[in-house]
Amino acid sequence: MVSTTTTLPAEALALLRARVDGTVLVEGSHGYAASFAPFNTAVVQRPAVVVVAESVADVVHAVRCAADLGLRVAVQSTGHGIGRPADGALLVVTSRLRRVRVDPVNRTAFVAAGNQWGDVLPLAQEHGLAPALGSSPHVGCLGYTLGGGVGWLARRYGFGSDTVLAFDVVTPDGALVRASEHDHPELFWALRGVGGGPFGVVVGMEIALHPVARVYGGNLYYPPELAGEVARRWRDWVAGAPDELTSSLVLIEYPPIPDIPEPLRGRSFAVVRGAWCGDPAQGAALLDDWRRWREPLVDTWADMPFGEVGSISHDPVDPMPAYVTTEQLDSLPDEALDVFVDGWQEHADGERFVVVAEIRHLGGAVRRGAAGAPNDRARTAEFVLEYVTVAADEARAQAVERHYTRTRDRLAPFATGATYLNFTEGAEKASRTASASGAAAWQRLRTLKSALDPANRFCHGFLVPPFDVPLAGADVPRPRQG
Ligand SMILES: Cc1cc2nc3c(=O)[nH]c(=O)nc-3n(C[C@H](O)[C@H](O)[C@H](O)COP(=O)(O)OP(=O)(O)OC[C@H]3O[C@@H](n4cnc5c(N)ncnc54)[C@H](O)[C@@H]3O)c2cc1C
Known about the structure:
Blueprint: H1 10-19, E1 23-25, H2 32-35, E2 49-52, H3 56-69, E3 73-76, E4 90-93, E5 100-103, E6 108-112, H4 117-125, H5 141-146, H6 154-157, E7 164-170, E8 176-180, H7 185-194, E9 201-208, E10 214-222, H8 227-238, E11 245-253, E12 268-276, H9 280-293, E13 298-299, E14 302-305, H10 310-313, E15 322-329, H11 334-345, E16 347-348, E17 351-352, E18 356-361, H12 364-368, H13 376-379, E19 383-390, H14 394-411, H15 427-431, H16 439-452
Parallel strand pairs: 2-4, 3-4
Antiparallel strand pairs: 1-2, 5-6, 6-9, 7-8, 7-9, 10-12, 10-13, 10-14, 11-12, 11-18, 15-19, 16-17, 18-19
Helix pairs in contact: 8-11, 11-14
Flavin-adenine dinucleotide is lined by residues 75-83, 94, 113, 134-136, 139-140, 142-144, 146-151, 196-197, 201-202, 315, 422, 460-461.
């Protein structure tokens, strides 16, 4: 039975507080809301109880307490990718579980649940090694990896999830297990791509590091009027590009804030962004092709230490009310690119609906790793599109939702129907989980879920419904089979 209570019995709360070294907070406690303040401030949630874990043992106690009480369990690290709000649930906050150990001989690292990529990157770089992080060093290592993880080395080396050697997991019944190729192999399989939430709280992972010390990376900024031409040219440029090149096409409007450097601040651009992890001279030659075509307004492509890779996208660091949506495409006919560009150019009340529109080039090692992966369907697409915007109030948020729906409807004839799960947030995280997997993988995920969490108490991240058991609460959306 799953409890729908929003208050914890006093004895249970007292027992939890006695067992846990970290902080246990309920609504009304000092610091309750601050303890789970997310990066995405659009998320409003009211957990029944929050456990800010100080140790793995705290996570075990919290999950066991939830199991005893039949409480739903949600997990949060940075709050960059929250799904269904943790209302009425026990929320495990992992952000204080920070421990990184790099083994330069075996080219591996251990990373704890609260670490962000910015904690790992400099330690790995001391040895000329690179973790498979994404565009932002402030994203949580675990949340990112459990959803796949596409970064600037993706076409050469695959997703972040491909680097995982083992996960330490507190399963829904409160057992602490190590999942690897040899131990709990089915759980290990599921966590590498559809792992954000449904199968337990992951408290740490052992990952392989790539031998990458430097990349040739950056941005070519062209005027926004050239968006259509840049888009078509980028599509043709990446066709058949070597796997050392992972790039994206970005249409962006920079806010007029001091954090944004002067040539970019308050202006819009069509951008050719990415990184080349082969010989820098070859990378420069590839970019010269663009420079000969038209001189960009700003050109930041340069040979750089991999440790500076976060500067390529220079993603925002301060919390903001963000809204995202995504689609995947196998090809980019002119009509699809027109929808993409139109979707970015549309304004209402003088404001753009979409602040950042990005198409990332996948293929390469991402596609080669598709067979047998839990998110196999999402890994075969050649491109993944993401729209991101900031909406200050509810009215604007609703207008953005309508705009996203319109644009996705127009893109539907060109989209694969699969979803890259890391680019979902809010309700889409649950409703689109199933579309990441082919039929066999989805059946396998549900079989595992039925064994590990038959009551579906872990239903706040990706949603994998168990067989034969009513979902926890009628408000949990049934996943759409893509
Ligand atoms: C600015 C920005 C840049 C991004 N860049 C990229 C990118 O380049 N590539 C890419 O692939 N993605 C990218 N993402 C998406 C990001 O990888 C996902 O949103 C990811 O889920 C964030 O993880 P988190 O732990 O930081 O966030 P949180 O919101 O804390 O967690 C996100 C989800 O992961 C689950 N989760 C987190 N920790 C655990 C755990 N220990 N055990 C079990 N479940 C857990 C939670 O259930 C939650 O649903 C970006 C997001 C933002 C906002």
